[in-house]
């Protein structure tokens, strides 16, 4: 039985794609993923399907190919952390899925700022406008994947209003790419930080 391989592509730059993920990608007949991945990793012999169609259409495409073709689905970061993987799992049995982990952008960010995350809380704001974040102080730090609604500015404002205040806010943009920027600031400064970039935000006392 052929497996549908879901590959975590890492924080962004191709050098952070793990060898096992690269091997699975190169052996695929059909590759589904963001255009930025297909433009870098796609080969002329592969069927390349951008992940821009409605997700229901993607499921139908996978159904049409899965019996006879090797399928790779490319997801950002770690395939098991707030990714398209959860949607795929709702439509296919676990037995036909092979999930290949990758380096998450949060892991990458902690390494870049030199903090440990043994007692940290990770979450994502992607597409969760009504979500209320946890700001409890028992965590040494809190890391967020942001979106256009939950910006660093809004996270800092919420943290100050909640009065579970960490001293520092780290904001990472374009992580792993040549134009990467990582900024450290107080929450007071962060509540006025405006950006159009999707980023990683970490609150910490260090």
Observed structural traits:
single chain, 206 residues, alpha/beta, Cobalt-precorrin-4 Transmethylase, domain 1, Methyltransferase, Cobalt-precorrin-4 Transmethylase, Domain 2, 2 domains, five-stranded parallel sheet, five-stranded mixed sheet, 7 helices
Write the layout of secondary structure elements.
Layout: E1 4-8, H1 19-26, E2 30-33, H2 35-41, E3 47-50, H3 55-65, E4 71-75, H4 85-89, E5 97-100, H5 105-113, E6 120-124, E7 141-145, H6 152-162, E8 168-173, E9 181-186, H7 187-190, E10 199-204
Parallel strand pairs: 1-4, 1-5, 2-3, 2-4, 6-7
Antiparallel strand pairs: 7-10, 8-9, 8-10
Largest sheet: 5 strands, parallel
The CATH architecture of the largest domain comes to 2-Layer Sandwich
Give the termini distance in whole angstroms. Answer: 50 Å
Low-confidence stretches: none
Strand elements, count:
10
**SSE run:** EHEHEHEHEHEEHEEHE
Report the average pLDDT across residues. 89
Tertiary shape: elongated
